[in-house]
Amino acid sequence: MISVNDFKTGLTITVEHDIFTVLDFQHVKPGKGAAFVRSKLKNLRNGNTVERTFRAGENVGRAHIDNREVQFLYSGGDEFTFMDTETYDQFALTREQLKWELNFLLENMNIKILSYQGEILGINLPKSVDLKVVETEPGIKGNTAQGALKSAKVETGLSVQVPLFINEGDVLTVDTEDGRYISRAQS
């Protein structure tokens, strides 16, 4: 058990049989009434974000999340097969479990998997990945308005807004948090 007074960003807790990570918290001491902790929590099972208020000193369960390295092997229909890099055990996750992450997964990519008491909660992608542009309109000479962007489709199917000088075949560094273009990848 852990007191809500000891909340830290990134802490994983259990509340009413659900697993949450603390995104944000604020200790509030009103002039009248008891102190409380206002928090923003992300449910690790379904990805929903909730705001929750706890009484100061209230205790919640501490969740110990395992973070193991795995390798993405291949996809087959709606299943995606991974291999634990230490034990070589293979397991599959469904398209439903990997909605957003599929935009960045490439075969043979090493990533971290999050699990709680044997239950797989999801995967932890690196902050950015390098993806090849497979489709984009050519940049038009003279169309140099500052900040002008065009759409480019990368090898995973994700559509990214990129500067006009990006061409098919270029490799881009893309942010995995929001899917935005960061830069051209260094060769």
Automatic annotation (TrEMBL):
Domain Elongation factor P C-terminal positions: 129-184
Domain Translation elongation factor P/YeiP central: 67-121
Lineage, broadest ranks: Bacteria, Bacillati, Bacillota, Bacilli, Bacillales
Sorted UniProt keywords: Cytoplasm, Elongation factor, Protein biosynthesis
PROSITE patterns per record: EFP (PS01275)
Protein's gene: efp
GO molecular function, one term: translation elongation factor activity
Family stated for the protein in its record: Belongs to the elongation factor P family.
HAMAP family, sorted: EF_P
CDD domains, sorted: S1_EF-P_repeat_1, S1_EF-P_repeat_2
Job of this protein: Involved in peptide bond synthesis. Stimulates efficient translation and peptide-bond synthesis on native or reconstituted 70S ribosomes in vitro. Probably functions indirectly by altering the affinity of the ribosome for aminoacyl-tRNA, thus increasing their reactivity as acceptors for peptidyl transferase.
Record-given protein name: Elongation factor P
Cell location: Cytoplasm
Pathway info: Protein biosynthesis; polypeptide chain elongation
Matches recorded under InterPro entries: Elong-fact-P_C, NA-bd_OB-fold, Rib_uL2_dom2, Transl_elong_fac_P/YeiP, Transl_elong_KOW-like, Transl_elong_P/YeiP_cen, Transl_elong_P/YeiP_CS, Transl_elongation_fac_P
